[in-house]
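Dear Dr. H.,

I hope your travels went smoothly. While you were away I took the liberty of generating a structure for the chain from your last submission, since the lab meeting agenda had it listed for discussion. I wanted you to have the full record in hand beforehand rather than looking at slides cold. The sequence, exactly as received, is reproduced here:
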Amino acid sequence: MVCIYKTFNNTGLLRVRQQQPGCWVEMTRPDWNECKEVSCRYGIEMTDLRAALDEEEYSRFTFEEGYDLLIIDVPVLDNSRNRLSYTTIPLGIILLSDTVITICSRHTEVINAFANGKVRGLDTSHKRNFTYRVMYAICGEYQRMLRQIDTRRIRIEEKIGSGKVRDAELMDLHELESSLVYFATSLRSNSNILRKMIRAEKNRYPEKTVINEANQELLEDIEIETSQAIEMTAIYKDIIENTSTLLSTEINNQLNDVMKLLTSVTLVLSIPTIIGGIWGMNVHVPFEKNPLGFLILCVMMGISCLLAVWILYKKHML
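The corresponding predicted structure, in token form, is as follows:
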């Protein structure tokens, strides 16, 4: 799907039907024909245009003939394995002389927020400022999802000690830990790309203007937010590893308690079996001529079982 947007002074961001100078071309899950049409219209290499559609594509920032290509990782929810987890996918941004193009293989909260006009002060004619604001929003999305991960970790941790811990919670923690690994890798790549963009911005526009200073300040803010997201990822990863260890210990303790209980029950039930086996032998035994012999044996079995239960209870085995 290809949508074209442009900001106007009196109405803000609007969707337009045809390409105009200073517009934003938003491509989400485009097919081959849509990519070919955009490639021919703007003179973009098909490989560069479809690079962001490959979820294994690495982040990079390159200067091509007639346009700049930026590929940066953006966080998204992942429900492919029937479990709520998080992953990262490439988002491509192509900067032409009077147009900015974004391309992604999925719908993302960041692009949806821009397309729905939720970002204030947006101006598609300032393509670099637009690009930097997208990057800043991506940093905010990382931090938002990191807080969601920590909230889910807290909910799982609250179940520890309540006896309600199951293997499903351990799998959920594993998914969260895997998500943090993806986040850490993508954030490091984005940080490297960001440093390259800061150098490029200073080298390309050495003269100080209001717009350039605003862009450089925005890039510095993005660098700060990215560093904060990297620190949050590292902290949450350590916490989840500790929680996972604690959860595994809790599950093992529950298993040990069950085994201890079954062992104690087996021991108690073996007492009547032993007594019944002895009195069932074909030899002379006590009470064999007593009319109340069977009742006496039952009382002996009951007393022996109660005594065994009391001893096991005192030993904290029941």
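Two observations you may find useful: The mean pLDDT is 83. The helical segments are 32-42, 46-49, 109-115, 127-158, 167-204, 210-279, 293-314.

With kind regards,
E. W.
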